[in-house]
Amino acid sequence: MADTSVTVTVDGQPLTASDLTLIRSVDVSEAMNAQTQVSIVVACDVDNVSNWSTPLDSLVVPFARFQVEIDRGPDSLVVPARATSASWSLQAGDLSTLTIAGLDASADLDREEQDRSWGGMSDADIASALLAPVATPKVGATPQPDGGDRFTPHQRSTDWSFLRTLATRNDFDVYLTSQDGVLFGVFDRVDPKAEPQASLDLGFGALGGTASVQVQLVTGQKVRFTYGTDGQGEQQVAENDGTGDAMGTQSLGGATTVLRDGNDLPGTQTPDVAARVLAERSAFGASLSVSLTAPSMPLLRARRTVTVRGLGPLVSGLWLVKSVRHTITQGGHVQALTLTRNALGDSGAAGAGAGAAVAALAGVL
User: Fold this and answer.
1) Ramachandran sector of residue 88 (left: φ over 0; alpha: ψ -120 to 50; beta: rest)
2) Based on the domain organization, do 164 and 260 belong to the same domain?
3) Residue 96 and residue 45: Cα distance in Å, rounded?
4) Rg for the chain (alpha carbons), in Å?
5) 167 and 92, same structural domain?
6) Which residue in 232, 230, 244, 324 sits closest to 284, CA to CA?
7) Same domain assignment for residues 160 and 208
8) Residue 357 pLDDT more than 50?
9) Considering its fold, how many domains does the chain have in total?
10) Tell me: the pLDDT tens digits for 160-186?
């Protein structure tokens, strides 16, 4: 697979080859339920009267716009970003640097608190309206409000904070992603059983690395969601054991039983959906951490699945990429991965052959 290349765009123009030689590192961190973070460290030019300057000086402005693109083979990661902090390390006679850190373009939705009502609209419709100013909305379906507008609490927050509240109670994620030059604002459920973006042969496989795996065996909960019905004194119960969409043969859901009610999710949700959200979320008790540096590694993205091979029948199988941190320096490209799953066992092992060490699949979303 081809080497990694990086393009940094400032003031609408890519940095020149000469300017790029001053870049010491580029760091991009994608994670579920979080904004993408970007950090660039650039060496300072110093003249004989101690004037330190860099190609990124114009970004020392609140929410200044820049873009980082990481390309590896046919795959790319493009992050339109907004500057949120700047820091200098100035050393006379030695390497001096400027670090520009920022968030993806969702930061534009987090600058001003609003006080308004969304009466009569579904969470999906609200999300489309809030995302439209910064991206093309790509929104999953949510329940329609009843006559009491039970799904549309009053907004008194930034648009981004309100989107996060709506996403949490629907078991959705909300994030921005770029595909073929189009920036999409996604408000939808992350599918833990989606087609994997790649297959990772760890352990003694082609990608090697030291994989660290932890499994919490008793965190999965069977949720009994209690609620009252108008005109009836007794409590009603909706129940879910969290074993839906198990990613392996042995679900981690339902190890304990808990009582929950409307106070355990922001806003109001239908009881059956609330029970499912709380139960299935608790089932993700397995985590795997590994750093990839092999020349054959694919470019991985958060919120997508991967197939892990070479770690035994309990740990191998389908995993969800919870977070990935790309660190690119003059010495190479490191991807630090945190994977998660809601089951043990490899449900695809029976039909799996040796295959290629890495099989990257097309598609950004």
Assistant:
1) beta
2) no
3) 8
4) 23
5) no
6) 244
7) no
8) no
9) 4
10) 999 999 999 899 999 999 998 999 999
